[in-house]
Each structure stands twice: as C-alpha cells, then as structure tokens.
Design brief:
Oligomer: homodimer
Strand order of the largest sheet of chain A: 5-6-4-3-7-8-9
Bound molecules: nicotinamide-adenine-dinucleotide
Strand content of chain A: 15-25%
Shape of chain A: extended
Number of strands of chain A: 9
Structural class of chain A: alpha/beta
Number of domains of chain A: 2
Number of helices of chain A: 8
Largest sheet of chain A: 7 strands, mixed
CATH class of the largest domain in chain A: Alpha Beta
Chain lengths: 196, 196
C-alpha cells in the first residue's frame, strides 16, 4: 500500500514527504507510519521528512525483496542434497547460495550448483552474501550447536529438519519440519479409508 | 471408549454383547453403535450379538493399531534415503517396512534396514505386509504415475514430497509436504527479524 502511494507521489514530482502527509494519504496515523517505517529500517528527518524514492525502494526490498533472498543450507548429507537439487537455481526470489558442512571431504566442492564451505567460514559468507535465513539438515545431536553458530553469524530465520526443538534467542524465528506428524496423519487416514 | 467398556464386560465374564447393551453403557444409540462397528469392519449376529473379546481386539487394531502400522516408501534417492535413516526401526506404532524403486541397481538391496523391491512387486508386497499408507519421494514428473500404481495396489494414504499436485480417487488421502512454503516463511521472518 505505501509503495503504491509513494509511486503516485513521485509521479506528481514530490521528492520528500512527512509522516503525517503519508498517514493522511494512507488513512492511518503519523505515529503508525513512523512505526512501520522504522520497522523496515527507514528513518526520516524532522526538517525534510522522508526521501520518497529511497523509501519506495526500501519498502520494495522488504515486501518481496526484488533483489533475491539468499539462504544457507547447513548439512550436505542425503537430505541436504535432496533439498539442493530441488531448489537448484532461483525459485522466484529465493535461492540457496551457500552450503556448509563439517565433513572436509565435502567442503570446497560444488553440489547441485551450490558451493560448500566449512563451518568456520560461516560468519564471513553470511555477511558477504547478505544471508538472513538458513535450512538446517544435520543429525539431531548436532542441531543445537549448528543452530547457535548460525544465530551468532547473524542468521534470523531457521527451517529445522532435525527432530529436536532448538533453544535460540528470541530474534531467531524457527520453523520445524516435523516428519513424524505428517507420517502419523497419513497412516491414520490411510487406515480410516482402508476400513471404510 | 468402546475398548474400555468392552474390557470391563470381559472382566465381568460377559462373552457376547448386543449393540443396544453397548449403546446404553456408552450413552449412545444402538444404531450409532452398529454404524461405528461396521466402520471398523465388525458385524454382529441378531441372535448372539457381538463376541466381546474379538470386538475389543478389532477396535484396538483400528484406533492405534497396536500391531504396527506399516508404510511403504517409493523412491530411494537422496530424500528417500534420508527418510529411511530418520525412520529406521519402529517409531511408536509406525514403521517403513518396504521400499520401491524403478532403478534396478537399487532393487533387491537393503537400505537403512529396509528392503527395496521393484515397482512390479508393489501389489504383492502391499497385500502381504498389510500396508495402507506410503511416502512418495520420486521426481516431479514421475509422481503421478507412481501414485496411481500405489492407489491400484490398495494404498489409501500418501505423503507426497514431489512438488506436484496428485489427481487420485477420492478414497486416497493425500498430504503434501511442500518445501517452498516452509522456505518462503523462514525467509520472510528471517528478513523481518533482520530489519527489526
Ligand atoms: N523432516 C523431514 O522431512 C526429514 C526427513 C529426513 C531426515 N530428516 C532429518 O534431517 C537430518 C539430516 O538427515 P540426513 O539423512 O541427511 O543425514 P546425513 O547424516 O546423511 O547428513 C548429515 C550431514 O550433516 C553434516 N554435519 C554433521 N554435523 C554437522 C555440524 N555440526 N555442522 C554442519 N554439518 C554437520 C554431516 O557431515 C552430513 O553431511 C537429520 O536430523 C534427520 O533426522 C528430516
Ligand atoms: N518437500 C521436501 O522437503 C523435499 C525436499 C527435497 C526434495 N523433494 C522432492 O522429493 C523428490 C525426490 O527428490 P530426490 O532428491 O531424492 O531425487 P532423486 O533423483 O535423488 O531420487 C529419486 C528416486 O526415485 C526413483 N524413481 C524415479 N521414478 C520412479 C518411479 N516411477 N517409481 C519409483 N521410483 C522412481 C529414482 O530411481 C530415484 O532413486 C523430488 O520430487 C523432489 O522435488 C522434496
């Protein structure tokens, strides 16, 4: 919504805008507009307001980062390889651009188009590639340690395939991909349908 | 609930029970009891009613088949191997007891404790092992064909990992394990948390 309004302002030749102006255009309050814009990392100046074209770009990057959203994969075993092959190349704005593993026979190699680094390189690579989210495909007893390494490197979203629950700082969002629940469900409905 | 009631009757030395008796114990109607019991494949006789111990066993098998619930896996590639290793042995009452693949270098071998058969053996093995549900881990363009083979063999529950939607008869329950949605979500929240 903001993006559309900002584009319209640009088209009218407006280069700066105050939060209260944007608020009246959006049917919202100045405080809400300031809160939203701070959330996506934009600050205005009390004197000149917000620069319209910069604001429009910043919002664009946040909603659906027209620049790609890069992910890391940790654990290039059977599951990791299946995920790399499934996600080879870009899928929309998402792509897996770096993989990590502790097995030295895997680091330095390229699997399904993705280079595998050692875990000691994770901080440099995450910062250089602008990676904010990762997929965790390591054995259960290694998952907590690997997840902490990711969080320390600045990753704030983790898709966890290991069957353990991770204890991480609140700023890291975790999604668990629990195989057991899905299999229980299929077995239950399979049995129901079978008996029907 | 029925199971508990039937066990109590057995303990009192009752060997046969009529649907209206079970109904009054369960606070239900005779018609509902007959419907429930037909659903799990049990029929009584108007003269002698239902044999209590057989009925208790049949209900037990249905609710949480104390006998194991056996599943098949189709596609022993990277993902299939990761699933077999994750599900090695019994997990509660679930176990993957047979795998299938079209690759002759895989059939006849045992992977993570599970024997791999050729697709031509699927009907015999599914019937022999009493398999009602399966996990589908084949490439997208093979998924529909493999799913139809499973349905023809009598499988009525499928956990589909391939990124395609399956068209199957109504009696086959399908759960889709969609990787893209989970990754989109993690990337979105990772980005939100990163900017916060
Ligand atoms: N939810 C699901 O759908 C699902 C399906 C199958 C497997 N799994 C789970 O996924 C995980 C991976 O399974 P797999 O069969 O691929 O295992 P795997 O043993 O084949 O692969 C694990 C990989 O992780 C690497 N590794 C181990 N410790 C590491 C660490 N500390 N840091 C980085 N890399 C490390 C290993 O070198 C190996 O390459 C397991 O936890 C398994 O339970 C989940
Ligand atoms: N949702 C998820 O979490 C997720 C993750 C990774 C991969 N995938 C999907 O899982 C599937 C398998 O991926 P993979 O990397 O293991 O692929 P793969 O190529 O490594 O393995 C596929 C296996 O299926 C066998 N196969 C092919 N056609 C068959 C048929 N008609 N009947 C029986 N077996 C057949 C092949 O011989 C091979 O062993 C793909 O569709 C992929 O997109 C899903």
């Amino acid at each position: 919504m903001y993006r559309r309004l900002l584009q319209a302002e640009l088209d009218r030749g407006v280069s700066n805008i105050f939060s209260h102006n944007l608020a009246s255009l959006a049917g919202s309050t100045a405080a809400q507009v300031r809160r939203d814009l701070t959330y996506i990392g934009c600050t205005g100046s009390p004197k000149t307001g917000y620069p319209v074209s910069e604001l429009r770009d910043a919002i664009g990057r946040c909603l659906s980062p027209n620049g790609e959203e890069r992910l890391a994969l940790v654990g290039v075993g059977d599951l990791g390889r299946a995920i790399l092959s499934r996600f080879r190349g870009r899928q929309g704005h998402l792509s897996i651009t770096a993989a990590f593993d502790t097995d030295i026979s895997k680091t330095g190699r390229v699997t399904h188009g993705c280079r595998c680094y050692s875990m000691s390189e994770i901080e440099d690579v995450v910062r250089r590639e602008g990676i904010v989210a990762a997929i965790l495909a390591v054995p259960a007893d290694e998952a907590q340690g690997a997840a902490e390494t990711l969080a320390m490197a600045g990753v704030t979203g983790i898709l966890n395939f290991a069957p353990v629950s991770l204890r991480l700082p609140r700023n890291v969002h975790v999604e668990n991909n629990d195989l057991t629940m899905a299999i229980e469900k299929v077995a239950f409905f399979g049995r129901e349908n079978h008996n029907a």
